[in-house]
Design a protein that fits this description.
Layout lengths: L14 H4 L21 H10 L95 H24 L3 H25 L7 H17 L3 H13 L10 H10 L3 H14 L5 H18 L2 H14 L3 H14 L2 H12 L18 H10 L3 H28 L3 H13 L6 H15 L3 H9 L7 H16 L3 H14 L4 H13 L3 H14 L4 H13 L3 H14 L4 H13 L3 H15 L2
Keywords: TPR repeat
GO cellular component, one term: non-motile cilium
Protein name: Intraflagellar transport protein 88
Amino acid sequence: METLRFASSGTGGDDDDGDLYSGFDTVHPALDIKNLEADHGFQEAVRTSYGRRPPTQSRIPTTAARLNSAAPPRLGTSLGTAAPLHSSLGGGAGGGGGGSSDGLRRPMTSMRGTGYTSHGSVFDPLHQANKGPAPALISKTEESAEEKIKALERRVMTLIEESCTAAAKGEVRLALERAKEASSKERSLIRQREQAGLSDGHNLDLTFSVLFNLANQYAANDMFTEALNTYQVITKDRMFNNSGRLRVNMGNIYYKMNQYNKAVKFYRMALDQVPNTHKSMRIKIMHNIGLVFVRMGQYSEACTSFEYIMQEEANFKTGLDLVTAYFALGDKERMKKGFLRLLECQLDIDDDEKYTTTTEDTQANLILEVIRNDPLRKMERQMKQEAERSILTAAKLISPAIENNFSDGYNWCVEVIKNSQYADLANDLEINKAVMFLRQKNFKDAVDTLKMFEKKETKVASTAATNLSFLYFLQNETELAERYALMARDSNGYNDAALVNLGNCCYQRSDYEKAREHYIAALDIDASCVEALYNLGLTNKKLSRYEDALDSLLKMHAIVRNYPPVVYQIAHLYQLLNDNDQASECHTVTFQVTWR
């Protein structure tokens, strides 16, 4: 049995066994490169992989290439050529020449083959440098059918918005043009969808918006036939949900055309389309029906519509319409019942005391100052004014009719109002009673009625004193007129009518400077007070202030056009200012207005 041998780590023994590096200079047959030139397979591989490359440019060996060429031969690197292999350092025999035995020299580094050199040659591994500049960028491909359709939809929506904006500004002609253009674009959009086979994606909302806006703009331009035809297209298309409500618009158009029977027909058709859950909408349609019956003189049918509304959702406007219908029928009892029902309507707004300053807190006062005139407060004022106007108008209407004489009728209305939640309006009705006496030239009863407010510290007392001052001035009782005018001014410092009456009393006494001051104070309160403007012009004329007088009268002429006394005074002032041409023109206008 053969015994294994191990290399000893000692220094003794024979040379073969003691040499640690023995055997390392022996080349394995598989790694012997001496016979590579005769190896057909290796030469074939070199020829197919690298043999087609152009030979690299020979370089002068650097200092590193002058190394001893006695190093053991190695395999070639990836930068080698098909030539006989040599040392990877490219060194030859000796230190000076540094060339290989076949005369070829290798580059210093492995970057030369990829195109990088120390001479700054261009990196062009694909050999495209001689093909000229790069071609121009490829233009954007044509839009697809869907992209074109979406762009056209956006254009249609833009036209609708422009039409609505123009209509809001009152430019109805421009709004109609934009609506027509949107309709034309929308029809083109439908054709493109059909051609592209995208009919299933038809935008119904866009079609409805286009047709609805077009119909509205036709109606705004008084093109009623075209508007009705457009609305009919919408209402007959079952694909549009809730389109039946648009029959209300059609009814409105027939109402404007004085075709009341058709208006009632379409209102009722629209009412059938509105569900009971939409109570407010149904009430508005019923109110329209009642108004049409009033126009037709069918007051009983109108009362039926208004009574239904007052039972479902009472409001002041409908209550006034109901009282008016009862008045047209001449039914005294129903007029009283209608008036009582009107007073039962609720005014859901806060008290005015909330907006008064009651604390010394600066921050709270600033907040009150802000909300005192904010949009919500303005809306509350409008609602209150609407309620007061409806109640007073109804009382003025029925007072002469519900009793044997209008005085007893007013007394009944006043008592009813005093017992309601709107007791403050009773004083206004008393003032109106005095005005009615004045219209009948019953000055005694008018004075007696107004004197009832002398001891009341309210705004109504100021109004009553103003009217008393006017009455006494008409009766040439200047002292009493001035006394009540002062009382009215003291009760309400912002009563411009009281200041006008004071100025009139001073003018009557020829105290023109004092009268001028009162008129100017009245204009400071209300710049459009025509009485103060006219009287100030006359006062300045008396004071020989012709320019100031002309200025006041021209302002009044701008408010009240072609009022003969004003035009005459303006012509006379031009005469006094030696402007005969203007004076002649004004006198001509006076003549034409007087004889018209």
